What we know:
The termini are far apart. By secondary structure, this protein is mainly alpha-helical. It has two helices and no strands. It is elongated, with a radius of gyration of 34 Å.
Amino acid sequence: MTKRSYQAPLVLEVQVMFEPNRLEQAVLHQAYRSLVPLVRRQLPAQPVITEHVFQNRLMSEKGNCHG
């Protein structure tokens, strides 16, 4: 039998063709929006409690406790 001649391993070179950036996320988001429907439910409106309303409620509760 004859011996096989030694072959050096093949060296591969990789070239970066795409560099991820902020645009990638926007493109993926747009693709998913076109593929997956967005389901929205209408929730009943709830009153917004502002700091002023919260303080008034707190003061009225304190007044009722010591009455």
